[in-house]
Specification:
The complex is a heterodimer of chains A (about 250) and B (about 250). Chain A is mainly α. Chain A contains 11 helices and no strands. Chain A is elongated, with a radius of gyration of 20 Å. The longest helix of chain B is centred in the middle third of the chain and has 14 residues. The chains are: A mainly alpha (about 250), B alpha/beta (about 250).
Chain lengths: ~250, ~250
């Protein structure tokens, strides 16, 4: 049943020009950044060659590209996630979903998957962009795939937070502001992270840094997965509590 | 009260049965001791002044709100322990029709059919049937936000009946309609009530007089009146005066 919700969400998402506009904008920024990095690499290449263990094209172009993409995802998430549940509530359509024979878990999973698939489109385009470098050299596939896995995991974390915050209110704008604050909060924790040890483990971007460096760390992997599951369960509980108490 | 209970009650005919429903918010009891049995082929009018617990009751009957105590069975499935099976037999039109403005009529109805677990093979037939029934045949390709109030209301009814439920619950389906549209919707409700159970919550007494066989009046969270309309007519009692009498502040 989650598939039905998923299809409907995709339909709503791509019916509005917003999703297309965002996709185009993200692609524009990423391609521009990619070209700048490529330019810099070509300029530096003669000097790099003299180093004994010189960084390759994957480290100098693709790693920074994925690092930028994370920041863009962080800023885009509130815009995309705000209407997922808040708008259902504002338009009084949540009643339709709750009265229908679908478990709340399926509603939440369908919406989560729809948002994640938006990010997946961007990630696929980024991979294609990266593979275009094959025309002039070799790629470190291990590093590329660890970046892809990391970016998708972080996007899943962002989506789960956005979905949960959207479930708290009937005002999409409020949900967007709330989501942005929480995600920025996770960002700031990262800044304080170097000083205080335990806080560092909480930071999402700290986890991404591991993937970004080509490290498929079990801690980061399980952290992201648990983070997503926690927020999805919170969303389900929130929707169910309305039935119980509201 | 409950005279009709004495009639021979074939249990197979009971579609919805609620026992001892109570709902409290904090310490206030909003709804108490609702006992309700609906039979197939019965159209029941639910009357009551605003804030008397009608909507709370309907929300409980449709699984949108958990009762503080009591239980609800729909076609033999308990709504609290087997919600998926129970909800498959239920159609609900809330006070504000749950419509997605940025979908077309067809896309919306197909979505509703799918979330009610109709098979891929049944979905298209169900769509054609329901559009025919609700007079939406020509509007399949329209965006919902461009439909007039009357058509949106019809679409709201269409989403409640597309999966052919045994229990249909309609919360003020004729609000904001012109007299012609009202008449059409009443005819539609009568037709639906032939082989199903319909609950019709409304403030419009003629709606009840023209469509229902049985009337429930709620006051201060309780059902204070439960009679067949034919009985009323036989004794030539006027529904309006009964309503006024029962729903005066502190009337019981």
């Amino acid at each position: 049943m989650a598939a039905v919700i998923f299809r409907k969400e995709l339909h709503t998402l791509f019916y509005s020009p917003l999703a297309w506009l965002l996709l185009a904008l993200i692609q524009l920024v990423l391609s521009w950044f990619f070209l700048l990095q490529l330019d810099a690499f070509l300029e530096l290449q003669p000097q790099l060659r003299q180093l004994s263990n010189s960084p390759g094209v994957t480290e100098t172009i693709i790693t920074p590209l994925f690092a930028i993409a994370v920041i863009i995802f962080l800023m885009v998430t509130p815009v995309l996630s705000m209407r997922l549940l808040a708008e259902e509530r504002r338009n009084h359509t949540l009643v339709l979903l709750i009265s229908a024979p679908i478990p709340i878990t399926d509603i939440v999973l369908g919406k989560f998957a729809a948002l994640l698939s938006f990010y997946s489109i961007t990630v696929v385009l980024m991979v294609v962009l990266s593979l275009s470098l094959l025309a002039g050299g070799k790629l470190d596939y291990g590093l590329l795939w660890s970046n892809v896995v990391g970016l998708i995991l972080i996007a899943a974390c962002f989506s789960a937070v956005g979905l949960y915050i959207s479930s708290l209110t009937a005002q999409p704008a409020l949900a967007a502001v709330g989501c942005l604050s929480v995600l920025l909060g996770l960002w700031v924790i990262d800044w304080f992270g170097d000083a205080a040890g335990p806080v560092r483990f909480l930071s999402l971007l700290q986890q991404f840094r591991q993937f970004n460096q080509g490290l498929l760390d079990t801690f980061s992997l399980s952290y992201c997965i648990l983070f997503v599951i926690t927020f999805l369960i919170l969303t389900v509980c929130r929707l169910d509590s309305e039935r119980l108490y509201g | 009260m409950h005279e009709h209970d004495e009639n021979d009650y074939n249990t197979e005919d009971v579609t919805l049965s609620a026992r001892n429903l109570c709902r409290r918010y904090g310490r206030t009891l909003i709804v108490q001791d609702i006992d309700l049995q609906l039979r197939r082929g019965e159209i029941v009018g639910l009357l009551g002044v605003n804030g008397t617990g009608k909507s709370t009751t309907l929300r409980m009957l449709t699984g949108n709100l958990a009762p503080s105590s009591g239980n609800i069975e729909i076609c033999g499935y308990d709504l609290l322990t087997q919600p998926q099976q129970a909800k498959m037999h239920l159609g609900f039109l809330p006070e504000i029709p749950p419509l997605y403005g940025d979908m077309t009529v067809d896309a919306y109805l197909l979505f509703v059919a799918r979330i009610h677990r109709l098979d891929q093979t049944e979905v298209l037939d169900a769509l054609e049937q329901v559009k025919h029934r609700c007079g939406l045949v020509e509007h399949g390709k329209y965006w919902i936000k461009t439909l007039s109030k009357g058509y949106q209301q019809r679409l709201g009814i269409a989403q409640a009946i597309i999966h052919n439920p045994d229990v249909i619950i309609l919360d003020e389906p004729t609000v904001g309609l012109d007299p012609n549209q009202m008449r059409e919707i009443r005819l539609l409700i009568r037709e639906l009530g032939k082989d199903r159970s319909v609950v019709l919550s409304t403030h419009i007494l003629p709606d009840v007089e023209m469509t229902c066989e049985r009337v429930l009046i709620m006051h201060q969270g309780r059902i204070v009146w439960d009679r067949q309309l034919t009985e009323l007519r036989r004794q030539s009692i006027d529904l309006e005066s009964v309503f006024m009498q029962l729903t005066q502040p502190q009337s019981h």
